[in-house]
TrEMBL record:
Keywords: Oxidoreductase
Gene Ontology molecular function terms on file: 3-hydroxybutyrate dehydrogenase activity
UniProt source species: Sphingomonas naasensis
Domain of life (superkingdom): Bacteria
Gene3D superfamilies given in the database record: NAD(P)-binding Rossmann-like Domain
Stored Pfam families: adh_short_C2
Lineage of producing organism: Bacteria, Pseudomonadati, Pseudomonadota, Alphaproteobacteria, Sphingomonadales
UniProt-recorded name of the protein: 3-hydroxybutyrate dehydrogenase
Family according to the record: Belongs to the short-chain dehydrogenases/reductases (SDR) family.
């Protein structure tokens, strides 16, 4: 367990990609603070399972990623109760789809706050703790939309392009402190959130389940296969290794060939 003695925060980790990150880190011995919204009992079940399965300490914090003061308080709590923040994975995100001229202003503000600004606030709070130890790993879940655009996703595309730029800037600033900063850009990942969209799309467009998957969701992915949360987590885990100490400022595509076209 190469992360024994290390501590991590993973935002947006009560399900999906974020929970896969948390499980992978804990399995390698890291203490983990998970974060996100959801049913309280279900969250406690996942938190307890992390401890029971791996023996690593696991905490839950309900900080709202649109609130800078709550973000700072969560990082401070992790420092106090877990002994530090060695690994920071910023994964929380929301989406809204509409043309620019019809895009609700409040939705724009919320997406930019949660998908982009929260990563800045997390970095701002955690980097001093990492500098003090001369070691740190910062990883953000970007998206294929950090590299290419799609119609009707102005806020999401802008935020994810911003993540790619923030990653590069932060990497340069902390390069001499033993801290690496990278982002991972998945295409469509098979999560409960994606699976739950299929019935509504079938009904709205009059399509079969197979048509929704292949012709709508996976239209841009040449492999016609969903990325799996565990695959994204495995890449993040590698970036935490000492073998990856020279990798910083990078944006890793994991999109089934989407951005190769």
């Amino acid at each position: 367990m190469f992360l024994k003695g290390k501590s991590a925060i993973v935002t947006g980790s009560t399900s999906g990609i974020g929970l896969a990150y948390a499980k992978a880190l804990a399995a390698e011995g890291a203490s983990v603070m998970i974060n996100g919204f959801g049913d309280a009992a279900a969250i406690e079940t996942e938190r307890a399972a992390l401890e029971a399965t791996t023996g690593a300490k696991a905490l839950y914090d309900a900080a709202d990623m649109s609130k800078p003061d709550q973000i700072a308080a969560m990082v401070a709590r992790a420092a106090q109760e877990l002994g530090g923040v060695d690994i920071l994975i910023s994964n929380a995100g929301i989406q809204h789809v509409a043309p620019i001229d019809e895009f609700p202003i409040e939705k724009w503000d919320a997406i930019l706050a949660i998908n982009l600004s929260s990563t800045f606030h997390l970095m701002r709070a955690a980097i001093p703790l990492m500098k003090a130890r001369n070691w740190g790993r910062i990883i953000t879940t970007a998206s294929a939309h950090s590299l290419v655009a799609s119609p009707n996703k102005a806020a999401y595309v802008a935020a994810k392009h911003g993540i790619a730029g923030l990653t590069k800037t932060a990497a340069l600033e902390v390069a001499t402190h033993g801290i690496t900063v990278n982002c991972i850009s998945p295409g469509y990942v098979w999560t409960p959130l994606v699976e739950n969209q299929i019935p509504d799309t079938m009904k709205t467009r009059g399509l079969t389940r197979e048509q929704v998957i292949n012709d709508v969701l996976l239209d841009a992915q040449p492999t016609k296969q969903f990325v799996q949360p565990e695959q994204v987590a495995a890449l993040a885990l590698f970036l935490c290794r000492d073998d990856a100490a020279a990798i910083t400022g990078a944006n890793y595509s994991m999109d089934g060939g989407w951005t190769a076209a």
